[in-house]
Amino acid sequence: MDAAAREVQRADTTTSVWEGPYKRNAWKTCKRCGVRFRHPKRFHVITLCGPVCVRENELERGRAYRITYEQRKAARAQERA
């Protein structure tokens, strides 16, 4: 099992939200799923509601990067031909 699969499995078996302690009256809205969550004290800047959303966001960013990379690579190949 690779590290990415272990991380998602661990996140699914424990919790999908950040653990406390939380900042007082600091509620935020997740930029990925839109759920309101409490801001943990250990993070200064946070926009995602938990480890599951963080992992999904990383996967989406990676997919988007790979797609644009393949498009750039194909465009360069056409220019050379």
What composes the largest sheet?
A: 2 strands, antiparallel
How widely separated are the two ends? 41 Å
Please compute the radius of gyration using only Cα atoms: 18 Å
Q: Output mean pLDDT.
A: 83
Structural class by secondary-structure content: alpha+beta
- Total helical segments: 2
Question: Regions with pLDDT < 50 over 5+ consecutive residues?
Answer: none
The tally of beta strands, per DSSP, is 2
- SSE order, one letter for each helix or strand: HEEH
The number of domains is 1
Relative helix content:
40-55%
Q: How much strand content do the residues show?
A: 15-25%
Overall spatial form: rod-shaped
Task: State the strand order across the main sheet.
Answer: 1-2
Task: Give a structural overview.
The chain is of the alpha+beta class and 81 residues long. The chain has one domain. Helices cover 51% and strands 16% of the residues. It has helices at residues 3-13, 51-80, and strands at 22-29, 36-40. Strands 1-2 form a two-stranded antiparallel sheet. A hairpin with a 6-residue loop joins β1 (22-29) and β2. The longest helix is centred in the C-terminal third of the chain and has 30 residues, at 51-80. The radius of gyration is 18 Å and the shape is rod-shaped.
